[in-house]
UniProtKB/TrEMBL annotation, chain A:
The keyword Chaperone does not apply. The gene is Pigt. The keyword Signal applies. Residues 1-23 form the signal peptide. GO terms for biological process: attachment of GPI anchor to protein. This is PIGT transamidase. InterPro entries: PIG-T (IPR007245). Transmembrane segments: none annotated. GO terms for cellular component: GPI-anchor transamidase complex. PANTHER family: GPI TRANSAMIDASE COMPONENT PIG-T (PTHR12959:SF11), GPI TRANSAMIDASE COMPONENT PIG-T-RELATED (PTHR12959). Keywords: Signal.
UniProtKB/TrEMBL annotation, chain B:
The active site is at H164, C206 (nucleophile). The keyword Protein biosynthesis does not apply. Pathway: Glycolipid biosynthesis; glycosylphosphatidylinositol-anchor biosynthesis. Belongs to the peptidase C13 family. This is GPI-anchor transamidase. The lineage of its organism: Eukaryota, Metazoa, Chordata, Craniata, Vertebrata. Residues 1-29 form the signal peptide.
Length: 579, 392
């Protein structure tokens, strides 16, 4: 009895000993959730959700069998296919950089998937195909359409965002499906990957009917290896699920730019996810007017946090859902912002780097793709990498590529061009362009439209064909020097990209996707031709056949039916010739 | 003598009564056995729901399919056993005034899209080839599980198709058709591979009855919304959305299914009576000659629901709560010798001086090879073989 009790006590002590943070199991894992609300200059509100699961385990070796916070579907994917980094984004809408400012993390319209594989993977293309098929099953998206005709291997863009020993670009694959639709069936599996699902914490706000009634909706999954601690001798795996949505509070709020959580999401927050170690709501209350007054949010925040984000000093009101004082007065948290003076938000600061792209030309034979890149910094020049992926049926003429800045030709310091192969590979054009201060750079290239085989047209060919967005990667010089942030202590939205030095910050922008019409045949023509040919053959051949083979003989006129005979009798009586 | 007759008669009467009771008991026992014999022997349920129409004005076909999906999920078939194919996206279509919703009743009463929907084949993936591959199981090996029909010989499968059709064919996405012969052959392939126990085929298109005329595999029951030569009509438009929301036949089938719950005993004969000509304008048809059981004995939940047989046990099971041994077996992560670092996002100097990738050398093939062979042949024919010594 006593021995058993002592034994039990020992077992309990052993169990209670290690891992206070994570619980029993191999490796500790932790969850942080965060919501960032940013009022945008044009009156909209951007809400960025980030759910970050960090797991101290070695996924590559395939020895892991117990999954707790890290979803098993993604963990098995990483270990089985030798994935070093995975970024998948599904987006509906377009981030208007000119009106809304620099995005925290932008994604192109449609589906974007880019993956770095481990050096141990021998057949990268096979692993890429398998990966896209598995992801299409997990996220209910048509990612199985990713094949060699829309996959490229960039040589200078898309460097790994996580730990990397060397960057052999043969291990990188990038593909965009611009025609991909994002709807509830993509949101549902995304929500199911969260440890608390959509039942507790910040994810209760994610209701499809409100999220898709917005100007921009982007949901993404990022998996990468990160440093486990400051000494960086061991690797942890980080899964970030981000969701950015921009609500047009002006048009839906009856002309007022005031917003609240309830008005945006038709829900309020009631508690934090019990599995999360940190659960916070940040509201950007940086001053927008000349008096430098902070914006007022109700209820009162638990603290105020200042950070330098994208080269600017910003102030955030912080609501910590795990602090007991937050839910003292009311059971639910409904963050509200009322603009004291409506004209405060009319000032629109221009972002330092933004770009547009459009198709020029006329007719269905030729055209040109023009990209305008704006550098609005008053005195600093910086380089930008432009990555363009053009489908093979728009045949680019590289000798017509011109880059003009301020009226003069601007020669890029690095060009990588990989021409397309019909039905096998798309065009890839990567250039490192130096943007002088306060300038607009115009990049134009002409193309010719190809005629596809009639079975290659989609069921709705008159909609047009999409050209995926160009990617601009740049290190933008920042106004204020930024210091190195400790990833664990600072908010998640400041640690998206690893920072190299304090004088500039990395930004990745996407231009608009293009919609071009290809010369479309009349699909009823095969039917018409068959009908016409068969008719002609039938008439000609049939007539000839009849003329040649028919024999004619005289036929006795028939006596006629009963009615005719009666009529003939009556006519005989009348003396009229018979019928 | 007179006393024995009534006694004998009484005995005989009692014997007759006893015999009668035995006979009755035997008969009911036989009837029970017979009923057991005719009760369905399926152990799992699958559903393949296909909407084949594209474009916004075919909203009603997507709403049809989603209503059947919703009923089937409500009656117990899980998402992993449903293959849902929608040829176009109506919920997040830019023309939809209420994004992320698909309504089946006017005045937006019932949102059949909901919050928990899993569409397996979307948009351009809904083709005749993919549909036939799903049915016959001849799918490329990299297809994920959610896109496969993993049925076995004890599965009851519900196949629902809707779209635009004609006499003997069903149109897929306005660019291709599937004919009734192809469909019948696909079902025969399924029967040969024992991929179903019983199959219920419902089709809601114009001239739908032509699609089941050619079936020849056993255990198939088919329903259609209209006969050959008739059009299936749509039910009602919604002025807010601007298009017709549902087809009549599926609307009344949905109303009928809303009454069904997992334990209901309604049988197929009631389903055949759904939507008479006065409501549907077209004449719904059905075909049961290939089906072995009497439709009277077939429950609706045999196909639309997934009723599991649950056995309750009273013995207890104790789980081992000692995790101390498990923790000691954890592999210790090996540490790197020097600190790892993050990659530089835009290393300008490294990019500019990047060596161009060595192109893999391929031996010349095809045209170039032929051209050189021709040139060499002409040379040697002109100048003769003895000039080869100049070459070597």
């Amino acid at each position: 009895g006593a021995m058993a009790a002592a034994g039990l006590g020992l077992v309990l002590l052993l169990m209670a000993g290690p891992s206070p943070g994570g619980g029993a199991g191999c490796g500790r894992d932790s969850l942080r959730e965060e919501l960032l609300l940013t009022p945008l200059p044009a009156g909209d509100v951007a809400a960025t959700f980030q759910f970050r699961t960090r797991w101290d385990a070695e996924l590559q070796r395939g020895t892991v069998s117990h999954y707790r916070l890290f979803p098993k579907a993604l963990g098995r994917l990483v270990s089985a296919l030798g994935v070093k980094e995975l970024h998948l984004a599904l987006t509906q809408g377009f981030w208007r950089t000119q009106m809304w400012g620099q995005p925290p993390l932008q994604a192109p319209a449609g589906a974007e998937l880019w993956v770095w594989f481990q050096p141990t993977v021998t057949d990268v293309d096979k692993a890429w195909k398998e990966l896209s098929n598995i992801l299409s099953g997990i996220f209910c998206a048509s990612l199985n359409f990713i094949d060699s005709t829309n996959t490229v291997t960039p040589t200078a863009s898309f460097k790994p965002l996580g730990l990397a020993n060397g960057t052999d670009h043969h291990l990188l694959r990038y593909a965009v499906l611009p025609r991909e639709v994002v709807c509830t069936e993509n949101l549902t599996p995304w929500k199911k990957l969260l440890p608390c699902g959509s039942k507790a914490g910040l994810a209760v706000l994610l209701k499809a009917e409100r999220l898709f009634h917005s100007s921009y909706h982007s949901q993404a999954v990022h998996i990468r290896p990160i440093c486990r601690d400051a000494s960086c001798l061991a690797v942890s795996w980080e899964l970030r699920q981000t969701l950015t949505v921009v609500f047009d509070s002006f048009s839906s709020g009856q002309g007022k730019k005031d917003w609240s959580l309830f008005r945006m999401f038709s829900r309020t927050l009631t508690d934090a996810c019990p599995l999360a170690s940190e659960s916070k709501v940040y509201v950007d209350i940086s001053p927008k007017n000349k008096e430098k007054e902070l914006l007022e949010v109700t209820p009162a925040p638990t603290s105020v946090h200042e950070a330098i984000v994208q080269g600017e000093k910003r102030t955030y009101a912080v609501y910590d859902l795990l602090s007991p004082s937050l839910f003292n007065t009311s059971r639910s948290l409904n963050v509200q912002l009322k603009w004291a003076r409506p004209q405060d938000s009319s000032e629109m600061p221009t972002p330092i780097l933004h770009a547009q792209r459009y198709v020029g030309g006329y007719g269905l034979q030729t055209g040109q793709i023009c990209t305008l890149i704006h550098n609005t910094h008053p005195y600093r020049a910086f380089p930008v990498i432009l990555l363009e992926t053009v489908p093979w049926y728009l045949r680019l003429y590289v000798h017509t590529l011109t880059i003009i800045t301020k009226g003069k030709e601007n020669k890029p310091s690095y060009i990588h061009y990989q021409p397309a192969q019909d039905r096998r590979r798309p065009h890839l054009l990567e250039m490192l362009i130096q943007l002088p201060a306060n300038s607009i750079t115009k990049v134009t290239i002409q193309f010719e439209r190809a005629l596809l085989k009639w079975t290659e047209y989609p069921p709705d060919p008159n909609h047009g064909f999409y050209v995926s967005s160009s990617v601009l990667s740049a290190l933008v010089p920042s106004v204020i020097a930024m210091k190195d942030v400790d990833v664990e202590q600072s908010p998640l939205f400041t640690s998206l990209f690893p920072s190299s030095d304090g004088s500039s910050y990395f930004v990745r922008l996407y231009t608009e996707p293009l919609l071009v019409n290809l010369p479309t045949p009349d699909f009823s023509m095969p039917y018409n031709v068959i009908c016409l040919t068969c008719t002609v053959v039938a008439v000609c051949y049939g007539s000839f056949y009849n003329l040649l083979t028919r024999t004619f003989h005289v036929e006795e006129p028939s006596r006629g039916g009963l009615a005719k005979r009666l009529a003939n009798i009556i006519r005989k009586f009348r003396g009229v010739p018979p019928l | 003598m007179a006393a024995t007759v009534p006694a004998g008669g009484r005995v005989r009467g009692a014997a007759a009564l006893l015999l009668g009771c035995c006979a009755a008991a035997l008969a009911s026992g036989v009837q029970d056995q017979a009923e057991q014999f005719f009760r369905s022997g399926h152990t799992n349920n699958w559903a393949v729901l296909v909407c084949t129409s594209r474009f916004w004005f075919n909203y009603r076909h997507v709403a049809n399919t989603l209503s059947v999906y919703r009923s089937v999920k409500r009656l117990g078939i899980p998402d992993s056993h449903i293959v849902l194919m929608l040829a176009d996206d109506m919920a997040c279509n830019p023309r939809n005034p209420k994004p992320a919703t698909v309504f089946s009743h006017k005045n937006m009463e019932l949102n059949v899209y909901g919050d928990d929907v899993e569409v397996d084949y979307r948009s351009y993936e809904v083709t005749v080839e993919n549909f036939l591959r799903v049915l016959t199981g001849r799918i490329p090996p990299s297809t994920p599980r959610s896109k496969r029909l993993l049925s076995d010989d004890r599965s009851n499968i519900l196949i629902y198709m809707t779209g635009h059709g004609g006499n003997g064919f069903l149109k897929f996405q306005d660019s291709e058709e599937i004919t009734n012969v192809e469909l019948a052959d696909a079902f025969e392939q399924m029967w040969q591979k024992r991929r179903y126990n019983e199959l219920l085929f419902i089709i809601d298109t114009c001239q739908g009855a032509s699609m089941y005329e050619r079936f020849y595999s056993p255990n198939i029951m088919a329903l259609a919304s209209s006969q050959v030569g008739e059009d299936s009509l749509s039910h009602q438009p919604d002025l807010g959305i601007g298009v017709h929301l549902m087809d009549r036949y599926t609307f009344y089938v949905l109303e009928f299914l809303e009454e069904i719950h997992p334990a209901s005993q309604t049988n197929m004969n009631d389903l055949f009576q759904v939507c008479p000509k006065s409501l549907c304008v077209s004449t719904p048809g059905h075909r049961t000659d290939l089906f072995q059981r009497d439709p009277q004995n077939v429950l609706i939940t045999d196909f639309f629901g997934s009723v599991r047989k649950v056995e309750i046990t009273t013995e207890t099971l104790s789980l081992d709560s000692d995790l101390a041994g498990f923790e000691s077996k954890l592999p210790v992560d090996e540490l790197a010798t020097e600190p790892l670092k993050y990659a530089e996002q835009l290393p300008v100097a490294q990019i500019i001086h990047q060596k161009p990738k060595q192109k893999d050398w391929h031996p010349p093939g095809g045209f170039i090879l032929g051209l050189w062979a021709l040139i060499i042949m002409v040379f040697f024919k002109t100048y003769g073989i003895k000039h080869m010594k100049h070459v070597f």
